[in-house]
Amino acid sequence: AQSVTQLGSHVSVSEGALVLLRCNYSSSVPPYLFWYVQYPNQGLQLLLKYTSAATLVKGINGFEAEFKKSETSFHLTKPSAHMSDAAEYFCAVSDQAGTALIFGKGTTLSVSS
Amino acid sequence: NAGVTQTPKFRVLKTGQSMTLLCAQDMNHEYMYWYRQDPGMGLRLIHYSVGEGTTAKGEVPDGYNVSRLKKQNFLLGLESAAPSQTSVYFCASSYPNRGTEAFFGQGTRLTVV
Question: Rounded to an integer, what distance in angstroms lies between the CA atom of residue B109 and that of residue A91?
Answer without folding.
Answer: 22
